[in-house]
Amino acid sequence: MVRQRSLPPAQAVPPRLSHSQEPGAHESPSTSTSSSTASTSWGENLYVGLSRETRMRIKAQARERPVPLFGWGYWWKTHYETLSVLVVLRAAVWGLALVLMHYCGMWAMEIPSGRIAWNPLIVVLSYVVAFTLCVIACIAMVHMEVHFGRQVAFSTIAATGVCSMHYTGMAAATFYTYSAPSPNAGYPPYLPLTIITVAVLVCVVSNVVLAHSAITARNRMAEMILTKRRLWRIMAEKDAAEQANELKQQFISVASHEIRTPLHTVNGYCDLLARTDLTEEQALYVTSIQQACHAINVIAGNVLDYSKLDRNNVELSARPVLMEPRKMVEDLARITEAKGVQPGQPGADVIISVAHDVPTAVYLDETYTFRVLMNLLSNAQKFCDEGYICVTVWMGTSEQLVASVADTGCGIPKNFRNALFEPFRQADTSMTRPRQGTGLGLSIVKHLVQRMSGTVEVDSVEGEGTTFTVKLPVTLPSYSPSHSKPPSPKPTGKRMRVVYRHKRTEELMMRLWAQFGYSMSSGSPLAPPAQLTEGVDAIWTDSESVIKSPSLRQLLTPAAPRVLPVYIVYLEREDLRALEPELSEARNVVLVKRPVILHHVVPWLEHPEEHMGAHLKPATSKVRFIVPPERAPSPMQLSPTPALPPSLLKEKYREREYGAGEAGPSRVRIEGLDVLLEPPKRRQRVLLVEDNLVNQRLGCRLLEKLGYEVTTADDGQQAVELLHSTTFQACLMDCQMPVLDGFSATRKIRELEKDGILSGHLPVVALTANVTSESEDECRSAGMDHFLPKPIKLVDLESILAKCARPLEEP
């Protein structure tokens, strides 16, 4: 018969398997192997922080084998192995304490007229008896707190040892006295048995108390070990999760870069194609491609932004800079222009309104604020098919900027508003939902607003529209407040009538223009022209309303009852074709392109005569007519009559441009006219550093389209070598290139400029598909002047080069 010895709870390393627990007895070998390996690995970690004695005990306990119930030989051998010097010293001290206690007690006895004679040999024998029994007791003490039999055995041995030592010690003493013997001399016969019984009971009670304390201590130790084990497991899982998250972030960054690189090519060639002569069908195709590129770019940007915000890094905290709120919303309107509008549909009017009390410049994180408003505006365009989308900016207090984005879309269901700012959540998740998206835009808005210590609120009525209000703390600049705000508009009392296809948009325009001091009224497109022009100074309408209203079309002709400025809001030039032939003859029309930026249109309302009929003015030509001095010596615009054949002018100009290269203007005699042709201007040279051949060709086309002379380099080393021999007005530098990357090349260029080897300061514009703020900071620290992320828009490239390109040197 075999029984398994149970281990205490504090045991850290699991015992070896007994024969009854070997793999195959109750479980498969694979299960046993895996559990044994896992336990051993955790057991090895448990050694950290334990004392040497505890580690030895754990090892000794792990080597224990099943003990036979009546295996005295094995029992004695096992306990004999536990005999050590420490056990012997402990027994020696314990026995000495018992002997001293006994003989000190006997020494304190008072014998009348007598004395005690001691036998030294028996005294030594009593100590030997006490020492031997103490050794046996120390051996039996091992793990006795979980074995009641060992407790009884130990108590019996201890009591027997005390009694043996006591009676042996009594035998060593001889009492002498001169007093007469007492008639009651001696002890009762039951006294020895009583002493032994009391001693055993005292030992048992003491052992029980000791066992309870030991068990409690071991349970605490076991709990601590289990806690450490869980902690180590959690730490390992945390490290694994962080590593996996880091790999995910790297993958998202690389994937975003790889998506933006071909998207840059598609978007660039679309911009070039859009500037060519296209049919209406071809223009429709190009517009659709541009909208798809914009959607891909927004999705990639949102995924990248959310992955960065999800990490909650300290470096992603807000960084206030001195920014201009009006310029920011103008850039926002330009970027979102015509996005999300289906061809052939008027779509929703995008209206931008900045209150007068907004300072010219404030300290605010421009990047985060721009992303917040762009996401809110894109979200509104997605869910608003008609009506208006109004972006309004005003000052809540002297230190709080408030921006709201209101739309007349479908609204937000009540049961979804609590989860509105959660990531990857959409109100309609069915396969037939009319609007697609990732569900990250509003979550990014909340994260960015919180990083700027602001708040975002939402007010929505299902079926009527939604308004998002963002409140951001700002700091005003330290210069004089009189220069921090634009000049206040002076109410002129002009009366204006709004005639719009959408009633709610009409009400909004009336309310907004009334804030600028205008007297507003509404009109019906079906009303007669006389009623529309009665008692007003101007008409505000849109191209769709003019197309459908004969009365409004009549206001564009000389047959109108009154000639008033008519402001027509339109989206594309194609929308105005339906207004012909009235529009080509109307000289009282002021065209306002969507999106409508109110603070830009205010000067047009105040001085309409400067803008009326601007659509009739021809473009400026490079050909100037030389007229007799008595008429006008100044240059004139080319007028329709006398008409000069464009092919002839182009051919003559091309001959001068590619001719011998005379410096001054030359006269050409054509049909009796003396025409002065301007010499070709020297074009600015731009260095394009790009290793990707496709992007290199695209960059050359874009720059040549803008009128620049382009020189290409395949890597940074070639760019540095070219700068030694050629002067450039600007440099477009890719960041990731072989041989020498863009950062190192820019640093080398700045060092050469500092040493005087290269003259002046070469403006360097960074071209990269990495759109993170860390990438922009790295470009700035390397010495680059501007940061232009891919995909690049032609208008952005033109704006940056016009701003930073240094002037041509005098020949």
Automatic annotation (TrEMBL):
Biased composition (Low complexity): 28-40
Xref: InterPro entries: CheY-like_superfamily, HATPase_C_sf, HATPase_dom, His_kinase_dom, HisK_dim/P_dom, HisK_dim/P_sf, MHYT_dom, Sig_transdc_His_kin-like_C
SUPFAM superfamilies: ATPase domain of HSP90 chaperone/DNA topoisomerase II/histidine kinase, CheY-like, Homodimeric domain of signal transducing histidine kinase
UniProt keyword Endoplasmic reticulum, yes or no: no
GO molecular function, one term: phosphorelay sensor kinase activity
Domain Histidine kinase span(s) in chain numbering: 254-476
Superkingdom of this protein's organism: Eukaryota
Residue span, Response regulatory domain: 685-805
Gene3D superfamilies given in the database record: 1.10.287.130, 3.40.50.2300, Histidine kinase-like ATPase, C-terminal domain (3.30.565.10)
UniProt-listed PANTHER family: HYBRID SIGNAL TRANSDUCTION HISTIDINE KINASE J
UniProt name for this protein: Histidine kinase
Lineage, opening ranks: Eukaryota, Fungi, Dikarya, Basidiomycota, Agaricomycotina
